[in-house]
Every structure is written in C-alpha cells, then in structure tokens.
Write a structure and sequence with these properties.
- By secondary structure, the protein is mainly alpha-helical.
- About 75% of the residues lie in helices and about 0% in strands.
- It has 3 helices and no strands.
- The radius of gyration is 24 Å and the shape is elongated.
- The chain starts with 5 loop residues before the first helix and ends with a helix.
- The relative contact order is 0.05.
C-alpha cells in the first residue's frame, strides 16, 4: 500500500486574500456590534425587571470606579 504524501495533506494557504480578510473583518465587526447591542438591551431589561438589584449593582460599579487607581 503506497504511503500518502503528508506534505500535500497539510499545506493550507497561509496568506489569505486581502478581500477575504476584509470580509472576515467586516463580518467580525458586524457580529460584535450585534452582540454589544443585545448585551445593552439585556442590561436595560434587567434594570426594568429587577430595579433594586440593578440599583445596587450600579452603586457597586460606581464604588469600584471611585476606588480604581489609574
């Protein structure tokens, strides 16, 4: 049985096309923007549903920012 050529199996094209790289970058940014929008929407919903917890969380965050050293 002949041995398969190992180099032929493991030689992917390591230099992506600039257009393809740009497309993947645009797609990544679009997905990130969508994720951040949904995250903010979820935070707003949580604040409406659990106002007391949201207030406490907001106060904790403010305290963290006050005590953070640059």
């Amino acid at each position: 049985m002949p041995e398969p050529d190992r180099d032929a199996d493991h030689t992917p094209d390591r230099t992506p096309d600039r257009a393809q790289a740009r497309d993947t970058d645009v797609e990544r940014r679009r997905k990130r923007a969508l994720f951040l929008r949904e995250l903010n929407e979820a935070k707003e919903l949580r604040e409406r549903v659990q106002p007391r917890r949201a207030r406490v969380a907001r106060l904790r965050q403010q305290m963290r920012m006050r005590t953070f050293r640059w």
